[in-house]
C-alpha cells in the first residue's frame, strides 16, 4: 500500500512537473536550402540564410524521440521578455522559411515547444536559450566554409562529418534528403546534448545518411557576391 502510494505520488508529481523521462537531446540544425528545394514545402521568396538554423532540440530516450504532454502552451510573451536579446537571437537562429507561416516565426516555435519542449522542466525562455546558445557556439556554416566546404555543385562523402569531428571532437549525425529532382543532399546536422541542455555528447548512431555522395546545395537565391563576403 505504501509502495503504491509513493508510486502514485511520483506519477502525479511527474505530471505536474510536465517532465517526461529522457536521456539526452538531439540538437537538429538544418540547411535552409535543402529544406526549401524539395518541392514539398513552399518557402517564402527570399528565404535563405548563410546559417544552419535550428529545426529543434528534441528529447530522446533509448535512441528514440519521446512524446511530450503538449502543455503548457507556448507563451510568446515569455520569450519576448527573455534576457540577452533572446528574441532577436531566435529570429536569427530559429527562423521559419515556410511561406504558410506568413513570415512569422511564432508558429514554428509554438510547434517545437509543444512537441518537444514540454517534455522538459525548463521554462520556455530557458529551453530556447539553451538551444540557441548551442547553435551559436557551433556556428557551423562558418566552420565548414573555412574548411572549403561550401554550397555549390561539389559532392561530399565523409568530409563534412570529418571536419565537424575534427573541429569539435564530437560525432554528429548527418541527415540527407532529396531535392525536387532527386539529387541527394545535405539536409540536417544533428548534435547530441545532455539532459541539462548544456554539454555536448557524442551521438551514438548508425549513420543517418548512407547515400553519399551528397551535395551541399546552394540556396536558390544565393548570389556569388554574397558568398564572397565570408572570405577573410
Ligand atoms: C567523443 O569521441 C571522441 C573520439 O572518440 C573523444 O575524443 C571525445 O572525448 C568524445 N567526446 C565526448 C564529449 O564524449
UniProtKB/TrEMBL annotation:
InterPro entries: Ribonuclease_T2_eukaryotic (IPR033697), RNase_T2-like (IPR001568), RNase_T2-like_sf (IPR036430), RNase_T2_His_AS_2 (IPR033130). Keywords: Disulfide bond, Signal. The active site is at 55, 112, 116. GO terms for cellular component: extracellular region. Gene3D superfamilies: Ribonuclease T2-like (3.90.730.10). One of its GO terms (biological process) is RNA catabolic process. CDD domains: RNase_T2_euk. GO terms for molecular function: ribonuclease T2 activity; RNA binding. PROSITE patterns: RNASE_T2_2. Residues 1-18 form the signal peptide. It holds the Pfam family Ribonuclease_T2. Belongs to the RNase T2 family. This is Ribonuclease 1. The gene is RNS1_0.
